[in-house]
Amino acid sequence: MAKSAYDIAADATYAQAAHTAIRHQLHEMMDNLPGTRAGDDIEALHDMRVASRRLRAALSVFAAAFPPKPFRALEKRVARITDALGVVRDADVLIEFVTQARDAASESERVGVDAFLEHLTNQREQDRVALVKALNKLENSSFLKDFDALLDQGEGGAHG
User: Which CATH number does the domain housing residue 45 bear?
Assistant: First the structure.
């Protein structure tokens, strides 16, 4: 039998499994917030985005374990952060791809490629400013307390 990625015991209840999986991904996401905000570690951004996407997946799987109204509110907050992370991460990937393509371009083509790279880089910086604002807002909000409250509610059993 395959081992759980979250060290969930085989006899864990649905609510216990939900708590464990969601808490794990929430911490993975938040652990990468400082490096993502600093902007000097694109791997932190990548890891935060992956964790946020996995958190969204865990939320989707375990939605029935939680009261709908507070659950949906937190799910939307996670989705907004995931989207903001995705915009910047996708820009990083595109900039890397275009930079590699530039190396294979002729001298005359590089003028256009360089202009495009400048545009992409400027847009990425604007998107990163928006991301940092969103991260600051998230960190200074009741996000973690709200998640703690939700997870505590979910420990009581599944909700319909």
Answer: 1.40.20.10
